[in-house]
Amino acid sequence: MSIMTISSRELNQDVTRAKKAAKQGPVFITDRGKPSHVLLSIEEYQKLTKQRRNIVDALAMPGLEDIEFEPPRLDIRIKPADFS
């Protein structure tokens, strides 16, 4: 896996080159000399995001039914405004 760094100006001038480079590895894009973005192939992106779960998946994990959790109930009442 190769890593390439290009400036945002170079990216604007040759997007095709950056897209081809992203097939070989991440392409770091700099703005005024500082890294600001990373260009990845869709395959690499999917590998990275596959490990993360959404909240529904996390709550459906086995063993969670054994955890007792009873949040306190809130008593919310509307009070008249005091303009004095």
TrEMBL record:
Similarity-based family: Belongs to the phD/YefM antitoxin family.
Name the UniProt record assigns to this protein? Antitoxin
Q: What does this protein do?
A: Antitoxin component of a type II toxin-antitoxin (TA) system.
- Top-down, what is the taxonomic lineage of the species of origin? Bacteria, Pseudomonadati, Pseudomonadota, Alphaproteobacteria, Hyphomicrobiales
NCBIfam families, per this entry? phd_fam
Highest taxon of source: Bacteria
